[in-house]
Amino acid sequence: MVSRILRTAFLFPGLAFWTALLLLRSPILLTEAQTFQNDDQVRFAVIGDFGSGSAREAEVARLIASWQPDFILTAGDNRYGKTTYDQVIGRFFCDWLKDVEPGAYCGGGNAPRNAFFPSPGNHDYSDGQGFSEYLDYFTLPGSDFPNGSGNERYYDVRWGPVHAFLLNSNPTEPDGLDVNSRQAQWLKRALARSDAPWQIVVFHHAPYSSASHGSSLWMQWPFEAWGADAVIAGHDHTYERLQVGGIPYFVNGLGGSSIYSFRTPLPQSMVRYNGDFGAMLVEATSEQIRYRFVNRRGDVVDRYEVIGGRARPPSPVSVGFRRKWTMRWATLQIERGPQGWGMRICLHPGVSAKSFCWGRHLPR
User: Fold this and answer.
1) 64, 91, 108, 127: which has the highest count of C-beta atoms within 10 A?
2) What average pLDDT does this structure show over 223-249?
3) Rounded to whole angstroms, what are the CA distances from 150 to 71, 157, 196?
4) Residues 302 and 317 reside in one and the same domain
5) Based on the domain organization, do 121 and 225 belong to the same domain?
6) How far does CA 112 lie from the centroid of its chain?
7) Predicted confidence band at 40 (pLDDT cuts at 50, 70, 90)?
């Protein structure tokens, strides 16, 4: 499945509407041969539900290594059972680690600066000696990065055009999980302060999922309204891409543990896959970002791309409808999905308000 979005920002939604009509009457050429040619490009991997120490994890780790990513993010469940973090992390990812607890496989890490950024899953709490082992093993986000949250349970890291926010979605998180919790309010402020072209939120329990565990309702925070461009989670051992409002949500839990079945698809579900293990490869510049899920055989299962970046006008603009709104920005999105080409216009009243989107799928 290939989806590509052209995102264009406008100060006035009326302009977005008439531009949409013009585009619908004009030919659009999108080719798979497009490549990134930009000095600010970064490449990173995202893996979830992987820390089994199995041959499956080893194969996914080799796949990730073949990409030569700048850094790696995880969607939790970094360790299962009685294995140690050295056995399931250090053994496969030492070249991206720094300042970890030395072990037989990885003596503290081979990276000049830390490039492995995990989020904790439920098995990081329940297995082995518990969450204390996780905190003892990692130094997060790393000695070369500022720690804006003041703790290692949730934190953020900026790398080139990408700003990643790693959260703790486990119910035992002392700073809470509701939208008014200390953790959520830290995220809201951090997203608002960030000037990165792409802001990606990563944690374990999927807010929306069509698979066995289902949706983790307590993590359905207003990520888009706060400024996030994508949300990546795990917990369900599947791959799924959903469109929630104007941004993609990914379930990425095929890192090597086991594979789950799907239930009735959610209305927001665009792509579902549970045919093999794999990981996400993400490439970004200041102007575009491409998400791919690749299985361990090297097959690209899904591709989702946003071209144009997020525009921030220099000042708010008041727009009158039935009532007066203060608009930050509006977007026009053109997407190819399961039902063919489609168009969406999204209006974004502000960081604390819900986005309003209209759209329909076009016939092939």
Assistant:
1) 64
2) 97
3) 22, 13, 21
4) no
5) yes
6) 25
7) confident
Q: Give the pLDDT confidence of 189-217 residue by residue, as tens digits.
A: 999 999 999 999 999 999 999 999 999 99
Q: Are 253 and 119 in contact (CB under 8 A)?
A: no
318 plus 295 within the same structural domain: no
CA torsion angle for 310, 268, 293, 216 (degrees, to 10)?
100
Give tens-digit pLDDT for 286-304.
999 999 999 999 999 999 9
Domain count, the chain: 2
Whole-angstrom distance, CA of residue 355 vs CA of residue 127: 40
Tokens of 150: 């003041």
Do 50 and 21 fall into the same domain?
A: no
**CA dist 310 to 96, 100, 176, 345, Å?**
29, 35, 30, 14
Give the amino acid at 345: I
Do 238 and 332 lie in a common domain? no
User: Model pTM?
Assistant: 0.80
Domain closes at, from 286, 307, 328: 307
Shared domain for 24 and 129, answered yes or no, is: no
Looking at the structure, tell me whether residues 355 and 273 fall in a common domain: no
Q: Is the pLDDT of residue 305 over 80?
A: yes
Spatial separation of the C-alpha atoms in residues 248 and 336, rounded to whole Å: 14
Extract the tokens encoding 8.
Answer: 């264009």
- Res 35: pLDDT: 47
Does residue 351 share a domain with residue 233?
no
In which residue are the tokens 């594979």 written?
A: 259
Which residues touch 355 (CB under 8 Å, ≥6 apart)? 224, 225, 245, 246, 346, 347, 348, 349
Tell me the pLDDT tens digit for each residue of 114-145.
999 999 999 999 998 899 999 999 999 999 99
Q: Which domain holds residue 268?
A: 42-307
Which parts of the chain fold into alpha helices (H)?
Answer: 13-24, 55-67, 85, 91-93, 122-126, 131-137, 182-193, 223-226
What CATH code is carried by the domain that includes residue 220? 3.60.21.10
